[in-house]
Write a structure and sequence with these properties.
alpha/beta, 11% strand, single chain, 250 residues, 2 domains, 8 helices, Spore Coat Polysaccharide Biosynthesis Protein SpsA, Chain A, 53% helix, four-stranded parallel sheet
Amino acid sequence: MRRPTDQQIYRFYEMIPGLFIWTVLLGSIILSIFKPVWIIYFILIFDLYWLFRVIYFSILLMYSWQKYQATIKIDWMEKTKNIPAWKDMYHLVFFATYKEDVEVIAPSFEAVINNSHPLDKFIVVLAGEERDKEHFLQVAEIIKQRFGDKFLRFLITVHPKNVVGEVPGKGSNLHWAGHQAKQLIDELKIPYDKIIVSSFDIDTCVHPQYFSYLTYTYLNTPNPTHASYQPVALFNNNIWESPVLTRLVA
């Protein structure tokens, strides 16, 4: 008997969540016909589970909101200045875009401009797609004229289309942009462990204290290059311009 390949095993593990969902859905329909009492108990237990889960979630949400409100009142730039190593740190910020207009992109750059951290510590990358090359380059030129001279470096990258073995999307775009940014960083001779990388959605508007707080956290984290840093995400930036399904989920 031939052993399954690693790819087949990996694919099986990928299928487990979907198989579980379909088993529950189809099993509920089948059991409602042959074992209706079982389904009644299942629904009651399931409802109780979600009730306790919502209560648990709500308590943590209120606690997190209080902690967030307390955090944003702190001057993190002043606290960061107490750590001498902060002067050696740089921020590499990626904005990946596809078919977005200037009106969407500009507020994200304005938020970075208005942050409390020195702008000469920033390398900002606007990453577009060759599939949208003509439109992207027009938008990128406008963004460059408005904001390009504000940072240590401003880099525009175009992710080529039809790359063999690659799935088009934000991930592949950032992968390409990352290699281009690495070349620039090597030219500037900045050590990799002195660079904090942020990957944002194109409509992300950071809090004015975000990068200072991130720098402070990075410098106080043991083995910081093997850690990731997840900010609190508030989905109210452009909520009224978003599609109804996106707005509902947010």
